[in-house]
Design brief:
By secondary structure, the protein is of the alpha/beta class. It is built from 17 helices and 15 strands.
Length: 557
């Protein structure tokens, strides 16, 4: 009798396991297809753009050359696909081999009626995990929006000035025990264009925010926010000169509020923009220090991207393939297509199969969805925006033409040559922050100015976004307001030390002001920051070595 009961129990477990396995398999393929669909979504735009561009060139290029170039493009596609397939299959193999021992043990427990996880428990767990990945994870990513990034209506920001293209906000401390020091040294931060500003205010209520790391130290902190490109023609048509003049206007407004020069900082593409704006001479007397974080100063020195572009036929290394026309007739660069190019470059890690199993492992370890994982995915999925064509040309040039031997950049502003040596001539302190595992802006591209300028370098662990997501946490081992590693200073520590060093002396001008383009009138907000609270000081890190368009109009708030 007992034997019959045991047999019936085992059959029930096997039947339950079979049902859960079928459910898990169905969910698995729904998820896998969704990952492929999300990954391949920009390809439709790419094919449309390719067709449009090639139709225009058919009569301009000999047929044999068209054939050779298209054949080379097919070969390039096959190489990319091969890398994705190879690493995708490796991810499948690695994951399921790890599951063999667990499955074997569960079978033994079921057959021998031992204590521990049996086959029914195992399959039920697999089904729950698949459901969490395919349905729960997307819900959590969408649900993180109220906590993620900037919410300028929550009382934590003060609108300070505005132009046709940008709005300037002061970032107030999230820590209610801290007050802004009105006499403190202000900082203006420029976020990247393509992936937006929100990464710089990652999870502010969880103390993970790049901009709030400055504000929570009492530093007068300002962020430049670009207006919605889809609804703002002035942004769609923006040039590098207009970007620079708007930055100068904001610097003037900040200077009026604090009566001293400011530090200009930028993250990723924002760092490159900050540097060329400063090199143009338009910010002379307004900016006396520079911070660039994971910023591509010479993209041709990025080994991974150079190798990737080297495989692409030269004919197709044209920004025109990424341009789309809006309903109003203005052209912009498709942000999703540009971000897709970076995924193709890292096909070994970003192919849909590898991404699926990476997320699966992440959820399997924690059995729950962390806010950090949800926020990072929200950033990657929903914060990608289109870019102004002329702004993109500046970055595009820096990735295709190297800086000359004398330090001259491949781009110009106001028809002036831009040279890194100008930073040294103006005696401007420069902190270059880079990430040792960054495969988007590799270290070689970030520290290129060291060939011509004495600048301080801080090398952070992890990847491209880690300074904004991991090290922005004040209690982390590489916190931005501390010194870490080989006597490296975080950007907030750098700013605090600059302020401290300037307290004991009258700040001298950074040099004779360069030529400036006269701006048209604009007014900023008259609000003044509140009183201040001093902060602690850490040991500083030693310095290591290694050039007009019509001025745009501005509006009063």
């Amino acid at each position: 009798m007992q034997s019959l009961m045991d047999s019936a129990e085992m059959q029930a477990k096997v039947m339950a396991a079979s049902l859960e396995q079928a459910k898990a398999a169905q969910t698995y393929w729904v998820g896998m297809l969704r990952y492929f669909q999300d990954f391949m979504a920009p390809s439709a735009m790419a094919l449309t753009s390719l067709g449009t561009q090639e139709q225009e060139r058919l009569g301009q290029v000999p047929s044999w050359e068209n054939f050779n170039d298209l054949l080379a493009l097919c070969e390039f596609n096959l190489l990319v696909a091969e890398a994705g397939l190879k690493n995708g299959l490796q991810a499948v193999t690695d994951y399921h081999l790890q599951q063999v021992e667990r499955a074997f043990t569960a079978w033994l427990n079921t057959i021998l009626q031992r204590q521990g996880e049996d086959i029914a428990d195992l399959m039920a767990d697999r089904a729950r995990l698949m459901d969490l990945l395919v349905y729960g994870y997307p819900r959590a990513i969408r649900g993180i929006e109220p906590e993620y990034g900037f919410h300028f209506d929550d009382g934590g920001y003060v609108k300070t000035a505005e132009t046709e293209r940008f709005i300037l906000y002061q970032v107030l401390p999230r820590d209610k025990s801290v007050q802004v020091r009105p006499e403190g040294k202000p900082v203006l931060l420029l976020p990247p264009y393509v992936l937006g500003a929100n990464i710089m205010a990652f999870l502010p209520d969880d103390n993970k925010s790049f901009v709030h790391c400055f504000a929570n130290q009492g530093i007068p902190t300002y962020i430049r926010i670009v207006k919605d490109i889809t609804a703002t023609p002035a942004v769609q048509l923006m040039t590098g000169e207009e970007d620079c003049l708007d930055t100068r206007f904001f610097c003037e407004e900040i200077n009026k509020r604090h009566d001293r020069p400011l530090t200009l900082g930028g993250y990723c593409q924002g760092g490159f923009t900050a540097a060329i704006n400063l090199l143009s001479g338009e910010l002379d007397g307004l900016v006396d220090a520079l911070i660039t974080c994971v910023a591509p100063m010479d993209g041709t020195r990025s080994p991974g991207l150079v190798e990737f572009l080297g495989l692409l036929p030269e004919r197709f290394r044209d920004l025109g393939y990424a341009v789309k026309t809006l309903e109003n007739g203005n052209e912009v660069v498709d942000g999703k297509l540009m971000s897709w190019v970076y995924k193709l470059k890292s096909m070994d890690k970003e192919n849909p199969v590898t991404a699926f199993y990476r997320d699966l492992k992440l959820l399997e370890r924690g059995k729950k969805i962390s806010k950090t994982a949800a926020a990072i995915n929200y950033w990657l999925l929903y914060d990608v925006t289109d870019l102004p064509v002329e702004i993109t040309r500046l970055s595009f040039a820096s990735y295709n033409t190297p800086v000359t031997k004398d330090g001259t950049l491949p781009v110009k502003l106001f028809d002036r040559e831009l040279n890194f040596k100008r930073i040294a001539e103006k005696h401007i302190p420069w902190l270059i922050c880079c990430a040792e595992a960054d495969d988007l802006v590799e270290k070689e591209a970030a520290v290129a100015p060291l060939d011509w300028v004495e600048a301080e370098v801080s090398l952070f662990p992890k990847g491209h976004a880690a300074m904004a997501t991991s090290w922005s946490l004040p209690t982390s081992e590489c916190a931005l307001h501390c010194c870490f590693g080989d006597n490296c200073r975080g950007p907030v520590r750098f700013q605090l030390d600059l302020e401290e060093s300037q307290k004991a002396k009258v700040v001298e001008p950074t040099g004779t002001e360069g030529p400036k383009t006269k701006p048209s009138g604009a007014k900023g907000a008259s609000a003044k920051p509140s009183a201040a609270k001093p902060t602690s000081k850490a040991k500083p890190k030693k310095t290591t070595k290694s050039t007009a368009r019509k001025t745009p109009s501005r509006r009063t708030n």
